[in-house]
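Researcher: Can you fold this with oxa(dethia)-CoA in place?
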Amino acid sequence: MTAIRSVVLGCGSYLPERVLTNAELASRIDTSDDWIVQRTGIRERHIAADGEFTSHLAIKAAQAALADAGIDAQSIDLIVVATSTPDNTFPATAVAVQHGLGINHGVAFDLQAVCSGFVFALTTADNFLRAGSHKRALVIGAETFSRILDWNDRGTCVLFGDGAGAVVLEAQPGTGTTADRGVLTTHLRSDGRHKSKLFVDGGPGSTKTVGHLRMEGREVFKHAVGMITDVIVDAFNATGFNAEDINWFIPHQANKRIIDASAHKLHIAPQKVVLTVDLHGNTSAASIPLALAVAVKDGRVKKGDLVLFEAMGGGFTWGSALVRW
Ligand code: UT7
């Protein structure tokens, strides 16, 4: 059997320079480093500068991914940007990224699935490549959540940060078996019954404002582990792999307690879990490619490794992707 596989050629990331520590937050609002670390694992996060937009972060992450892949931007014919914090209501941030990279062919569009955005974008690009319509894709998760936070709401403002991460995918012939390199299986879900548990209280079609992030944290927490583990079991069932076969688990970085509980429930060994939530906070659609770039750069993720991604977020949306590096 032959098949087209979406093989990862490279990855990269970008974090804004400014670091906001828990101690600095505690000097402004009624919180403490102890509370934030114990409840979330977060120690600091990066915050975009004035005039630094989501597209700017995305372009830098994309350039790093292209350099890592060793390819020219002109060979990219598909750009998918996962973001909930676009530069403008329209056009898509992806076209600003396309323009910023000097590309004026192919197609670029945004995808909005909040914290699950990267897994949704990876799945979308994989489907385009496997359908044969496109050859090389940039999949980017980029966010400036600092712009939609209510900085007086201690229940949410301590959790999020800004950043961007990107991967380059290329359509390559494979055998169609799980021995192939590339995206092996993806599983996406959503359930709008939960849409009021994590949302932004504004928008162009309702309030004509941007709005602020609102979350029933405990409610989100209650659903997270079950949803995450369900789609990972789907990935295991689709491929025949199990927790022992996985080399690296790179989850959405929302809360260390959710990550630990998910890994424990799935019997994934703690040393296989890539954790960056301490240094990045929750960067929504950017968190997985940011964590991935760290683990690739420090030599943990190597060619041939089985890498498992998962995410869960507003909607609710959730999903998993299993990739052979
Ligand atoms: O990426 C999308 C998915 N999002 C998530 O996965 C987030 C999921 N939820 C969570 O991670 C957790 O629910 C939080 C970290 C948001 C909160 O942790 P929690 O253990 O669920 O705390 P809680 O909301 O039950 O609040 C416990 C207490 C409350 O005080 P009382 O009512 O017990 O007196 C809060 O008012 O902690 C208080 N609190 C804080 N205290 C100090 C809430 N935020 C803070 C804060 N500093 N920043």
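Model: Folded with oxa(dethia)-CoA in place. The chain has a mean pLDDT of 98.
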